[in-house]
Design a protein that fits this description.
Helix content: 40-55%
Strand order of the largest sheet: 2-3-1-4-5-6
Mean pLDDT: 78
Oligomer: single chain
Distance between the termini: 52 Å
Radius of gyration: 30 Å
Shape: elongated
Low-confidence stretches: 36-44, 328-381
Length: 482
Amino acid sequence: MSEWVTDTPAFAVVGKINMGKSSVLSTLLEIDNDKIVRVSNTAGETTRCQVLPLEFDGREMLRFIDTPGFSRAVEAMRAIQDLHGTGTPDLATVREFVTSQLEQGEFEDEARLLQPVVEGAGVLYVIDPSKPIRDTFVAEMEILRWTGRPRMALLNEKAENEERLQEWRTRLGSYFNLVRTFNAHHAQFDERRRLLKSLFEIDETHRDRIKQTIDLIDEEWRQRREESAEDLMDFLAKALRHRESEKLDEKEELEHRKERAKEELKKRYYASIEKLEEKTYEKMLKLYRHQLLKVELETDDFSGLDLSSEETWEKWGLSKSQLILAGGLAGGAAGVAVDLGSGGFTHGLGTLFGALTGAGGAFLKGDSLPELKIDARGVSFDGESKKVLVVGPPASDNFAWILLDRALYHYGEIVSRSHGRRDEEVIDGESPGWVRGFSRERRSKIQKWILEQLKGGERKFESEIFKELVSLLEEVQEGAAP
């Protein structure tokens, strides 16, 4: 059995140094770890072939082979021609060249990259079409053609010069079974899937195995969406039900203690929401195998929102009219649902924007909190009479929609990030934009569930909302207009 090629369909990714071979592999295999696939601008980073399997449940379905780049293609081509003599060199001659050069080392890079090819691997030839066609590229293509192996050329960047791009396509078409454009730094799931599907067309002997692999990839992404929907639903439910509380000793100066407690509870409340959100995004990043992508949150992200500001209404959540149509909560001037008393929570949420420019907006700007409701009965802790201050969530029903809007935005950034990139990107959450495009039926359905969470009662409608969220995440993944 060959060192590089087994019964598993194998494809060697070849090309000139720094054409983007490693970026293509990283995207195909969803690897953004340089310890596994080194993506670098430094010439000659890949000096030996490396097997990179595409596995599911421990079973290797496909294998890709990262190879050294061509370094002396023109000279190697001439050496193969000299070895063959008259006529056109064939696979046997290329194999003889590889065997001899692995021993002598004059064309070591060429011999190493060709070794898995002569042993039976198909070829994915990566080229940057912004480069002019030179003799060295023609030599590479000639050598690969002589192997007779299934071959596909990948244009790894879109050339700004359309004439040059067409020139590349025409020339590549003479040497390869198939030519595809695949920008590894921007390719998303659909492009990755289409490229793998193209392997059908160059390697019909493994057609069933490749189709099975694509089916497994589709199933994997379906499971990821469902798991993400579960995490998102759990986050929203916990965030909407979350309260922060503080016991007050009646012997203390109540008003002084109350004001201090309000500010402390406000900070604790938003820090808790931030932590819930961070954990949700951490799960999504892990699920989609991102190590270099980060989500940046600040504790005052929510408390800094000003619901009295037109800019806020234009950017995040639902519009005022949409909130009303969705069955918005009553009493928008309450700001934050705050209680003093027997541990119960206030539900004094009137018509949504009866006074959005009043206390609620002031609270979300971080100004003074609205007056607290006090239950004179108090509660008993360890036999002592206490009063309890409870805060959360913001009374404005748009807060729930803002949470959802932000989550959908972050999910979209996570699923659209290519693993071929090596920059450490931070998602700052500054670009909103999904929930306002919802149909009235979808808004009403989600709003009904939001109200149930705010009540803190039984978690109803979860099956219905789960299906809705799965559908939403699929739309975000596909880049559908919100």
